[in-house]
Specification:
The protein is an alpha/beta fold. It is 46% helix and 11% strand.
């Protein structure tokens, strides 16, 4: 029949068929060849079915010709016997009675019986219900009035096979989504026209249902959103979180106030010529329109001024526009612009974009030049700028670097309106949200508190529910057993009936339905190429016409590697992945790839590249033709894509489910190396945990790019690498690495994985002396984790242990400890070994009585008139005795047995739980000691720092050998300067002054002999000068000589730090230059003083040009927080400003700070690391350290402020 239909169509349409796309012709033929097709009278059915298509596709010229062609088609098909004849219809002359002519006795008398029970079976009802839903969905789609061009596109694109059906469904889905977006209410910045307008507060949603594609997502949902609360929406991938947010944004749920502005940040902004900054500003429609009108009116005014020079001017402008009317309207515009604070809008928009890592140059680039991830950031910036009544954020941290994530956390913490956020980042949720909405089992359940509190609360609820369920089941079983036993016993009939009634009245408790476990099972490669499988040798890369992204990169990857690559967005991480994969080639140097290695790359591109019109199984069958379906299903199942989910259209999957399909695709051929680019994006929290476990068990190499900080790996990286401390085959301790990228430089930073996951990091290649004991203590630390488990494991305890015997004896004893089959030392044996061969952690520091301590010093005390403050200040002063320590003589006699370095003088530890002395804390400790008139103790601290510099080239953080990374501001010169101002003694600091002055007149700073030795490798004086500047930047800034600041990790001369010092460290260096100039002047070194003064003036000019933004009226890259040190810096800056108003402000801040310290001490009996600057007397939540006896810098700041400002007798003491 199809052949006949094809012949007829070509005959009737003639040569025109040659110009028509074949899929359209095929569609026409298939329609007409359908045996159930109704041609109608004279081809009316053909016209109704195909008329519009025939005209739009060019088969006929107009509808008049179309009717003629349809008639001819009907005739031709009729001649071939393909048009079913219609039965002849004849009207009856009279009605016909069916029983006429029959005897009444023979007429059947059928009795109408009542039907007992339902007319339909349950199965029939379900079928009708499904049909009803299908019809409703069809009516919704029909209501979209899809244009014929859309239908033609579907026909052109897809054929009538299985994949074509899925494709057509996908195209229909796209059309539906487009219609949905078109129906989204416009959300923009609103300015209250009158103060009497209603204000949206709480939102109450009751008894609502949400379903998609016939699948119920939320049933009888109830939710109350209180104004100003921040909600975290959590639930597994595919439960409907994003769909729920879309319904809220569409106002598709009854109960949402009509005047409530709801903004769902889901789509990236459209790329066009608009700049990123202007794109954000354009969301303030009223401001934009007012400015446009202002520009137009000013142009008219200028025209009038030109016309005024002409004698023909009559006071009217083009089109008889009155100039006075223009002036009046401009005044109205200016008044309105002032009222809506239009002048500050640009600064606010720029500040938001800057927080999301847009540089000033990027803010003025057109949006079309940005990638999708950056355009998504612009959409987020628009939303934050608009400040809707209800802001909906779906995975806002995706594609953000750590700087942007931390900024967003801080910004949202102060968000004044209602917020709902979906995020897989646990710490982000803990920081931002006040409540949790849990979507589970088609229900929404509300929990107070952040995510951690939710986990604890839900765990307790589930335990209680299980107990109640078990008790209920026991009671029911007991009653049922009684009923069954005595049901037919007449004597006990009444008892049985009472039990039956009690059983009916007894409520039921739902059994706990646990979510199925997620899994990520990465296949083990069958073969193992020899190392290295990847090797970078002096590799550099830059795109043509662009800057060099990195230089002289040297590192290798093998099957045991676990490398984390961190750095801000756009720094070149994806480029390195492409170099490894062979998609790019280095500009210089080499990248070796083993010919046998199989590499799998996971990136957002691979997720976006999925065929959304297909389903997971069909997609895998296309990617791997010839592979049995069952094998593909099994592989999909190893990533959680099981059952019907494998047959579900891809566009209906959640983001996390799509990611798992992408993982399944890239790992099917059993790769040796995984290159993971932001692998946790879109995954829910349970899936992230499963991914971590899967990576831990993977028997191959991993290089993971996860956007994070340069100094501290994010928890995801830390967890992944920390879980792989021992190689699953050899059980040997391995070293892994962090590949750090910043500002065109890339370095490999090799760290022991067990140390790297904690704050006490140890660089295997750090500069300075690293004693052999450290490696052994790391092994003890790792063994302790395996033996004792993470709950009772203190990572820092073991590296602070000191040996009772020499290292070789202790190592031999350790090697003889009994072990289990998996290499673990039983806890009791390890505990006994540690007790026998080690001294306690911290035993190398012993208590010391300060020689210059007096009970009532005359430093701060004379100005403190209030008796209660005076008593408290003396208690704080007395803490110096508790915090005073000296290094044990054992450390000086046998330094090889200790990680603590043998300091020559006594010291002050930061707090009672500390086992070391720190560098930058010591400046504020010294300020407090000077206020306490403890000059000798202050000098001793500086003497210890100088000792470390002279013997090791820099200040080891904490004076512990494993703290080889220096990340502390340049305060040594300021310490010396403060002591000099109080004592006037210049004799003792002449030697320290020389540390800052090289014999060639350059600012070398610290470790000069070693520096000159290193510089001798450089061939020219110019290169040596550059090297000295790099050293100066790294050393006295407190930034370390870690390999992460080097272009080549093995060559100190490639140090590059001058371009990465932020404003706060530059401010410290400025103070250093001024202090050194003052010290040089005091010693008669006028030339040196002049040189440093000149340097300080140049730096101040640079501050103005680089860090100060006049338009924004703020310092860029300067963040102040609630630590005592920062408060003290602010107060001192105000005092030195020369303004009486600033001095008054400084005094007010000082009194506030002293008061909050006093109240907190009164309530807790402790001094704390930091305090809540918004709530008097509340010490800092989230501090790094638990409350303890004294906190060095806190004590020092309080005493220094009391010395400066005192405390009047009548000054109020308690919080207001």
């Amino acid at each position: 029949m199809t052949e006949v239909a094809s012949s007829v169509v070509h005959e009737v349409l003639g040569p025109r068929t040659e110009d028509i796309d074949q899929p359209i012709i095929d569609y026409i033929i298939n329609v007409l060849a359908d045996e159930d097709f109704d041609f109608g009278v004279d081809g009316d059915g053909v016209f109704d079915a195909l008329g519009e298509l025939l005209v739009d596709s060019g088969c006929v010229s107009d509808f008049s010709e179309c009717r003629s062609v349809c008639s001819r088609l009907c005739d031709k098909f009729g001649k071939h016997g393909l048009v079913k004849p219609k039965p002849t219809v004849r009207s009856l002359a009279a009605p016909v009675r069916m029983f006429d002519g029959m005897d009444e006795e023979k007429v059947p008398k059928k009795k109408v019986e009542e039907i007992d029970g339902p007319l339909l079976t349950e199965r029939d009802k379900m079928k009708l219900e499904r049909r009803k839903r299908k019809d409703e969905r069809q009516r919704e789609v029909d209501g979209l009035s899809l244009p014929l061009s859309y239908i033609v596109d579907v026909i052109l694109t897809f054929k009538q096979d299985a994949s074509g059906v899925l494709g057509a469904q996908y195209q229909r889905h796209l059309a539906e989504m487009e219609a949905v977006r078109a129906g989204m209410p416009v959300v923009c910045v609103t300015h209250n026209q009158d103060k009497g307008g209603s204000v949206v507060r709480d939102i109450h949603l009751e008894n609502f249902n949400i379903s998609v594609g016939g699948r119920d997502l939320i049933v009888e949902g109830e939710l109350t959103l209180s104004f100003g609360r921040h909600y975290g929406l959590i639930g597994r991938n595919g439960t409907g979180k994003t769909t729920f947010l879309r319904h809220l944004a569409l106002h598709a749920i009854d109960g949402i106030p009509k005047n409530c502005q709801i903004l769902h940040v889901e789509q990236e902004v459209v790329g066009d010529d608009t700049t990123a900054l202007q794109c954000v500003l354009n969301s303030d429609i009223e401001r934009t329109q007012l400015l446009q009108e202002e520009a137009r009116l000013l142009a008219l005014q200028r025209e009038h001024e030109v016309d005024g020079e002409n004698e023909k001017s009559n006071g009217k402008l083009n089109g008889d526009v009155d100039k006075d009317a223009i002036t009046q309207r401009l005044q109205e515009i200016y008044k309105r612009l002032e009222l809506i604070d239009a002048d500050s809008a640009e600064a606010r928009a720029a500040s938001i974009l800057a927080g999301l890592s847009f540089s000033p140059e990027m803010q003025h680039k057109s949006t079309k030049t940005f990638s999708g991830g950056w355009r998504m950031r612009i959409a987020l910036a628009r939303a934050l700028f608009i400040e809707p009544d209800l802001l909906l954020l779906d995975e806002p941290t995706n594609h953000l670097d750590l700087h942007a994530v931390l900024w967003l956390e801080s910004y949202l913490l102060k968000w004044p309106k209602t917020l709902i956020v979906v995020s897989h980042a646990r710490e982000f949720l803990n920081s931002v949200v006040t409540d949790i909405i849990h979507l589970h089992g088609q229900k929404l359940t509300m929990y107070k508190g952040n995510y951690d509190i939710f986990e604890r609360t839900r765990e307790e609820q589930l335990k209680n529910q299980q107990k109640a369920f078990e008790a209920n089941e026991r009671s029911r079983a007991h009653m049922q057993a009684f009923i069954d036993k005595f049901r037919y016993n007449a004597k006990r009939a009444s008892l049985v009936q009472s039990r039956i009634k009690a059983l009916d009245r007894m409520g039921t408790v739902d059994a706990i339905v646990n979510d199925p476990d997620y899994k990520f099972e990465f296949p083990t490669p069958d073969d193992r190429p020899g190392p290295p499988i990847i090797s970078f040798s002096d590799a550099s890369f830059g795109y043509p016409g662009g800057p060099t992204l990195f230089r002289n990169l040297n590192f290798g990857i093998d099957l045991d590697s676990r490398i984390a690559m961190v750095g801000p967005n756009g720094i070149g991480k994806s480029t390195i992945l492409n170099l490894i994969a062979g998609e790019l080639q280095p500009s210089s140097g080499t990248v070796f790839r083993s010919a046998k290695v199989r590499i799998a790359i996971f990136s957002q591109h691979h997720v976006d590249g999925l065929d959304l019109s297909s389903n997971p199984l069909l997609y895998m069958m296309r990617c791997f033709p010839g592979v049995p379906e069952q094998k593909l299903r099994a592989h999909l199942g190893s990533f959680g894509i099981t059952g019907n989910l494998a047959l579900q259209p891809m566009y209906t999957l959640s983001g996390g489910q799509k990611s798992r399909v992408a993982f399944a695709k890239i790992t099917f051929k059993k790769p040796h190396l995984l290159l993971l680019d932001e692998p946790s994006n879109h995954l829910d929290l349970d899936a992230v945990e499963a991914l971590i476990q899967g990576l831990v068990m993977f028997q191959g190499g991993i290089l993971m790019d996860h956007i994070g900080a340069i100094a501290v790996p994010p928890p995801f990286i830390g967890a992944t690498i920390n879980h792989s401390q021992k190689h699953p085959r050899s059980g040997e301790c391995r070293y892994d690495a962090i590949l750090t990228l910043e500002h065109g430089d890339s370095v490999i930073h090799c760290l022991p994985i067990n140390i790297m996951a904690h704050s006490s990091s140890c660089s295997a290649k750090g500069s300075g002396s690293v004693i052999p004991l450290i490696s052994f203590l790391e092994e003890i630390q790792e063994t302790a984790l395996d033996s004792f488990g993470p709950k009772i494991y203190d990572p820092k305890y073991y590296v602070d242990l000191s040996l009772k015997y020499n290292l070789s004896i202790t190592q031999n004893a350790f090697a003889k400890l009994p072990r289990t089959k998996d290499g673990r030392v039983p806890a009791k044996y390890l505990q006994a070994f540690i007790g026998e061969y080690f001294n306690g952690a911290g035993d190398d520091l012993v208590q010391h009585e300060p020689v210059d301590f007096v009970a009532e010093p005359q430093g701060f005390l004379p100005k403190v008139k209030h008796p209660e403050v005076r008593a408290w200040a003396l208690q704080v002063h007395a803490l110096w005795k508790n915090l005073s320590r000296k290094v044990s003589q054992r450390v000086k006699d046998q330094p090889e047995l200790h990680t603590l370095l043998p300091l020559p003088k006594p010291c002050i530890i930061p707090g009672s739980r500390f086992r070391e002395v720190y560098y930058w804390d010591s400046y504020w400790v010294i300020r407090g000691l000077l206020a306490s008139k403890m000059h000798e103790t202050a000098k001793a601290i500086v003497a210890n720092l100088i000792y470390l510099i002279e013997n090791h080239g820099f200040v080891f953080n904490g004076a512990r050998a494993y703290y080889s990374n220096r990340s502390q501001p340049p305060l040594l010169s300021s310490m010396i300067h403060e002591i000099y101002k109080r004592t006037g003694d210049i004799s003792w600091f002449v030697l320290p002054l020389m540390l800052w002055i090289s014999d060639i007149g350059h600012l070398v700073l610290l470790g000069i002999h070693k520096d000159k030795e290193t510089a001798s490798k450089l061939p020219t004086a110019a290169e040596k000068e550059i090297f000295y500047h790099e050293l100066a930047s790294a050393a006295e800034s407190g930034w370390d000589f870690s390999t992460r600041w080097m272009r080549n990790s093995s060559d100190l001369t490639t140090l590059a730090t001058t371009s990465i010092i932020p404003v706060d460290l530059n401010a410290y260096i400025l103070k250093m230059e001024l202090d050194i100039a003052s010290l040089a002047k005091a010693t008669g070194e006028k030339n040196i003083a002049a040189r440093f003064l000149e340097a300080s003036e140049a730096r101040q000019r640079a501050f103005r040009s680089v860090f100060w933004n006049e338009k924004m009226s703020q310092w860029l890259d300067c963040w102040v927080h609630e630590r005592p040190t920062c408060e003290h810096i602010i107060i001192e800056a105000l005092l030195k400003s020369g303004s009486e108003e600033a001095k008054s402000m400084a005094k007010d801040l000082a009194f506030r700070w002293i008061r909050t310290n006093y109240v907190a001490y009164k309530n807790t009996g402790e001094m704390h690391e930091k305090y809540n600057v918004e709530k008097c007397g509340d010490y800092g939540g989230g501090g790094e350290y638990v409350p303890q006896t004294g906190f060095g810098w806190t004590n020092g700041v309080v005493l220094a402020l009391l010395e400066e400002f005192g405390w009047p007798k009548d000054e109020k003491l308690d919080c207001e």
